[in-house]
C-alpha cells in the first residue's frame, strides 16, 4: 500500500538560535528512548504490539525533555517554532496519505483487486509463470498503488494458488517484496520516501523516471536467479468468476485524475501536492454521491435483466449490494501506519533540534564521498525502516547533485529488500504468509538481492552520469 510534505521547508535543525545538546543528558536520553522505541517497532511481529505505540510515546517524552531544557534557558519560543514546523510537515503527510489510502480502499471495496486475482487464477498458469506474473505485476502496480498494498494483493494470489507448496510461496513472496520495492522507487506515489523527495522539491515528477531502468535491474537480477528454483508444475486450484462492483473502473480514472491534479498544483503554482490530493478526494466524494443517488435505478434495471435471463445468481448478488460510502473508506485507512509516521517525524525532528542530524551529516556527507554515503543509507534501510532514514537525510539537507538525490531515493527504496524486516511490504507478507514466508527464508536469498542492489546502483551511475 506507500507513503508527502515531510521536508518542504527548512528542517528543525535550521531554527535560528537552536542549542547543540548532542553531549547533554537530554541528548543521550533521547537517543536511548528512540533506540528502545525502534527495537519495539522491529519486534512488532513477535510482540503483537502495534508499531505506532512506542514511537508515539517516545516522541512525547523526547519533546517534553527538549521543551523543559529550552524553557530553562529562556528559549521556549525556539523549541515551539521547531515543534510547529514538524507538526506542519506531518499534517501535510497525513492528508496526502489519507487520500491515497482512501482511493485504494475504495478500489478494494469495489472488488477491483479481487477481479484481478480471479483473472490470474483462472488462466491456469504454472508455478514459474505465476512467479514471473506476480512479480511483474507488483513492479508495474506499485508505482501507483504503493508497494505495501501491491505486495499484499500479489501475496493473496500466491497463497491461493500455492496451497501447501511452501517452497514456491517463499520464493514468490521474496520476489514480490523485491519487485514492489523496486517499482515504488521510480514514482513519487510508489513509496513514502520517493514522495518525501518529490514534495521537498529536490526531484521533479518526471525526473524520477531516470530511475526506471536501475529499478528494473534491481528486480530482474534476483528474480532471474530465483526463477531457476521455481518448479514448472501446475497448481491445483479452482478458478472462480469475480464481478466488480459498479463504478470500479471509474474510481481508477478518478485516482489518475487526482494524481494529475496533485502534480499540477506542484508544477504550475508551486503549492504542496497535498492540495491537489484533497481536491481529488472531492472527486471521489461527488462520485460516491452519484452512486448512492442512482443506486435504486441501477438495481431495478439489473434486476429486470436478471429476471428476463432467469439468472438466479445475479439476483442473489443484487440483494447484497450496499451503497458506496466515502467516509467508511476513510475509516478503513491504515491508521496505525499514519500514527507511526507521526511518531517518526516528531522523533527525528527532536533529534534534529538536539543537533544529532547535523553531526551525522558532517561525517557522512562531508568526510565521505556522497555516493558511498547514499549506498550506506540503503544498507541502513534494510535494518531500520526507510522512512526515518530518508527523513533524517532530508533533515540534514546535504548539498547533493540531482544524481545523488536520485541515488539516495533508489537505495532507500530498494535497500529494504535485503531483509524481510527492511520494508513495510516484507513485514506485512511475513504476517500474511505466516510460517511460509519467513525472515530466514528471505535471508537465504539476500546475496542474490544484494547483487541486484549493487547492479542497480552501477546502472544508475552509468546511465545517469550526466546528473552528478
TrEMBL record:
Keywords, alphabetical: Antiport, Ion transport, Membrane, Sodium, Sodium transport, Transmembrane, Transmembrane helix, Transport
Membrane topology of the entry: Multi-pass membrane protein
Cited InterPro entries: Cit_transptr-like_dom, NhaD-like
Record has Repeat as a keyword: no
Lineage top rank: taxon: Bacteria
GO annotation terms (biological process): sodium ion transport
GO molecular function, one term: antiporter activity
Subcellular location: Membrane
Lineage: Bacteria, Pseudomonadati, Pseudomonadota, Gammaproteobacteria, Vibrionales
Main localization category: membrane
Keyword Mitochondrion in record: no
Organism: Photobacterium ganghwense
Transmembrane segments: 24-42, 54-70, 90-106, 127-145, 151-169, 176-199, 211-230, 251-268, 274-291, 338-359, 371-394, 406-433, 445-463
The family this protein is said to belong to: Belongs to the NhaD Na(+)/H(+) (TC 2.A.62) antiporter family.
UniProt-recorded name of the protein: Sodium:proton antiporter
Amino acid at each position: 500500500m506507500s507513503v508527502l510534505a515531510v521536508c518542504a521547508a527548512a528542517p528543525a535543525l535550521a531554527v535560528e538560535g537552536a542549542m547543540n545538546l548532542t553531549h547533554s543528558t537530554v541528548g543521550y536520553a533521547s537517543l536511548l528512548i528512540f533506540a528502545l522505541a525502534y527495537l519495539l517497532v522491529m519486534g512488532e511481529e513477535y510482540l503483537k504490539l502495534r508499531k505506532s505505540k512506542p514511537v508515539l510515546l517516545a516522541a512525547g517524552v523526547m519533546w517534553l525533555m527538549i521543551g523543559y531544557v529550552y524553557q530553562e534557558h529562556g528559549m521556549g519560543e525556539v523549541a515551539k517554532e521547531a515543534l510547529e514546523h514538524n507538526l506542519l510537515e506531518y499534517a501535510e503527510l497525513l492528508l496526502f496519505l489519507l487520500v491515497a489510502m482512501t482511493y485504494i480502499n475504495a478500489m478494494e471495496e469495489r472488488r477491483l483487486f479481487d477481479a484481478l486475482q480471479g483473472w490470474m487464477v483462472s488462466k491456469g498458469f504454472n508455478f514459474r509463470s505465476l512467479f514471473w506474473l506476480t512479480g511483474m505485476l507488483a513492479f508495474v502496480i506499485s508505482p501507483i498503488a504503493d508497494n505495501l498494498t501491491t505486495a499484499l494483493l500479489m501475496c493473496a494470489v500466491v497463497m491461493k494458488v500455492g496451497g501447501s507448496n511452501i517452497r514456491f510461496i517463499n520464493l514468490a513472496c521474496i520476489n514480490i517484496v523485491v519487485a514492489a520495492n523496486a517499482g515504488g522507487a521510480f514514482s513519487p506515489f510508489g513509496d513514502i520516501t520517493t514522495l518525501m523527495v518529490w514534495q521537498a522539491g529536490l526531484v521533479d515528477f518526471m525526473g524520477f523516471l531516470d530511475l526506471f531502468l536501475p529499478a528494473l535491474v534491481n528486480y530482474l537480477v534476483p528474480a532471474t536467479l530465483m526463477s531457476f528454483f521455481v518448479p514448472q508444475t501446475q497448481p491445483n486450484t479452482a478458478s472462480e468468476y469475480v464481478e466488480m462492483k459498479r463504478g470500479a473502473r471509474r474510481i481508477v480514472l478518478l485516482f489518475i485524475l487526482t494524481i494529475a491534479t496533485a502534480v499540477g498544483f506542484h508544477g504550475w503554482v508551486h503549492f504542496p501536492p497535498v492540495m491537489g490530493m484533497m481536491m481529488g478526494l472531492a472527486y471521489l466524494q461527488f462520485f460516491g454521491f452519484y452512486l448512492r443517488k442512482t443506486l435504486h435505478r441501477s438495481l431495478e434495471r439489473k434486476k429486470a435483466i436478471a429476471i428476463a435471463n432467469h439468472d438466479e445468481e445475479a439476483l442473489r448478488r443484487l440483494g447484497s449490494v450496499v451503497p458506496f460510502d466515502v467516509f467508511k473508506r476513510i475509516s478503513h485507512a491504515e491508521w496505525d501506519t499514519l500514527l507511526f509516521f507521526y511518531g517518526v517525524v516528531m522523533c527525528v525532528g527532536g533529534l534534529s533540534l538536539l543537533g544529532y542530524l547535523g553531526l551525522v551529516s558532517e561525517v557522512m556527507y562531508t568526510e565521505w564521498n556522497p555516493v558511498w554515503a547514499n549506498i550506506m543509507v540503503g544498507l541502513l534501510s534494510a535494518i531500520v525502516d526507510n522512512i526515518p532514514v530518508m527523513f533524517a537525510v532530508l533533515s540534514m539537507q546535504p548539498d547533493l547533485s540531482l544524481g545523488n538525490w536520485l541515488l539516495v531515493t533508489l537505495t532507500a527504496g530498494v535497500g529494504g529488500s535485503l531483509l524481510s524486516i527492511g520494508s513495510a511490504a516484507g513485514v506485512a507478507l511475513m504476517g500474511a504468509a505466516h510460517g511460509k514466508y519467513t525472515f530466514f527464508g528471505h535471508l537465504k536469498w539476500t546475496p542474490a538481492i544484494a547483487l541486484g542492489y549493487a547492479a542497480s546502483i552501477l546502472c544508475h551511475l552509468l546511465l545517469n552520469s550526466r546528473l552528478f
